[in-house]
Amino acid sequence: RNQTKHLDRVVHEADLALYAAKKGGRNTVVVFDPGDARTQDDEEDIAAILKVAVAQRLVSLVYQPIRNVQTGRVAAAEALMRLRRPDGTSISPAEFIPVAERSGSIIELGRWAIRTVCSEILAENKVEVASVNVSPIELKMPDFSSFVASTLSDFGLGGARLALEITEGMELEIDQDVVRCINDLRKLGVQVWLDDFGTGFAGLSWLRLIEFDTVKIDRSFLHDCNTERGRRMMLDIIGLLRNRGTRILVEGVETIEHQRLMQQYGIHQLQGYYLGRPAAADQLHTLNVVPFDIMKSRIC
Predict the structure, then answer these.
(1) What domain range includes position 8?
(2) How many domains does the chain have?
(3) pLDDT per residue over 30-89, tens digit each?
(4) Integer CA distances (angstroms), 23 to 92, 93, 157, 216, in order
(5) Are 273 and 254 in contact (CB under 8 A)?
């Protein structure tokens, strides 16, 4: 029993290091530091909070806009999950997502997120398309696609208005059950996006097996464009995706220079703090006002 607890602890610590590495972008190595970790009691507290998060409204969603910079309008929004303790203090996704996946709470949280997105922004027509990140555990559930179908039906929504994001770098065995689930989702008209492309080793395998509606190029490639080598790499990736006929979205746009460079490369679907920070659902309408700086920076 002690060995099992030790193994669980090691796996959890590896999860924390993995999420920290993903946050740092590609080619990032993070060594777990016990001094930075939560104590076992803290981890158990997070697991306990997750069990009641939906019922006690401790979980919420914010939405980061995805802009078409040719028009300046919000083309879509990505739902981002937030969690707080009963005392109101926030818990980082890098902390609670691994715990949710390991404890199984991610299933309830994920389904709550999909229903919430459908009810509070899609059914209210606050954006045309909304994306939700999905966990590998969710994709492996045999009833996941039927849950999505019934949710869309409940709110009278077409499948194309919902996008589900699969993160390239996540630990996910590309097995037939997962591929079958994704194909079932696409039959519903649901968009399937590949997130953080370029951060892991599975990206090309995913592209070979699945026809993605949109591929999101990881922010690290954009930030590397301050070098000639980085710019060549970005153009190579864009060329690969264009040859496949895949829509391209670039993440991490934090400056007007980032935006202008991507426009030069013919990429107009962009996401990042420069184009809009995450906002609550009731603030989404204000994001569709075309910012002056975006209008000014259009390339003729």
Answers:
(1) 2-296
(2) 1
(3) 676 665 554 566 888 999 999 999 999 999 999 999 999 998 889 999 999 999 999 999
(4) 12, 11, 33, 15
(5) yes
Give the pLDDT score at 122. Answer: 97
Tell me what pLDDT residue 299 has: 45
- Structure-token pair, residue 195: 């997130």
Amino acid at 169: G
Question: What pLDDT was estimated at residue 291?
Answer: 56
Report the CATH number that the domain containing residue 229 is assigned in CATH. Answer: 3.20.20.450
Q: Give the predicted TM-score (pTM) of the model.
A: 0.83
Specify the pLDDT at position 32: 66
* 247-250 and 162-167 beta bridge pairing: unpaired
Q: Point out the residues of the chain with pLDDT beneath 70.
A: 1-13, 15-28, 30, 32-41, 168-174, 200-203, 288-300
d(CA 243, CA 11): 39
